[in-house]
Specification:
This protein is an alpha+beta fold. It contains 7 helices and 6 strands. Helix 1 packs parallel to helix 2.
């Protein structure tokens, strides 16, 4: 059985304050449970609730694959300002609510960060060279030792590794 409504609210509120404090104190991404409602995600990340932010979160949550801004705009109300959507996605990327990957056409595509345990981009992405589709390959993970195996000069500080696999998707091979 779930907790009473009041208790769930208190749990979310407490988690918000703890996560926000840890994020500010340690400059780490806010960890968010994947099943939280858009309102709770925004609150946990310390972002105001706006119609565009809510809409973008809902669009990304419904998509199985990363989406480019034009595809996101198609799924939002007609009057939605494109600049606001770009700014929203930049805020979400900084807060680690979404991750982005550059497609074959050099366009950023965005996907909701579904796992609260792993840092962003700990899975490879596949880019189809024929149709340009970008897919997250979430069942695979990038090993932690991968960056160390590259023997990067100590003058560089690597935040994360991003692996892009290029080839032909199943649809283009058919």
């Amino acid at each position: 059985m779930g907790l009473p409504v009041q208790s769930q609210s208190n749990v979310i509120c407490s988690a918000y304050h703890i996560a926000r404090f840890d994020s500010i104190r340690y400059n780490t991404p806010v960890k968010i449970a994947p099943d939280l409602a858009p309102e709770a995600i925004l609150k946990t990340a310390g972002l105001r609730r706006t119609p565009v932010r809510m809409g973008v979160l809902r669009v990304l949550a419904k998509s199985a694959d990363p989406l480019a801004v034009p595809a996101i705009l198609e799924r939002l109300p007609e009057h939605t300002d494109a600049v606001t959507v770009y700014r929203t996605l930049n805020s979400f990327t900084r807060k680690k609510l979404v991750h982005r990957v550059r497609g074959e056409d050099r366009t950023w595509r965005y996907a909701l960060e579904h796992t609260s345990a792993a840092p962003a981009h700990q899975h490879p992405h596949f880019v189809c060279e024929d149709c340009g589709k970008v897919e997250c390959i979430e069942q695979a993970t990038i090993p932690e030792r991968f960056v160390k195996s590259l023997s990067i000069d100590a003058r560089y500080s690597v935040s994360y590794a991003e692996v892009l696999l290029h080839g032909r998707c199943a649809k283009c091979q058919a």
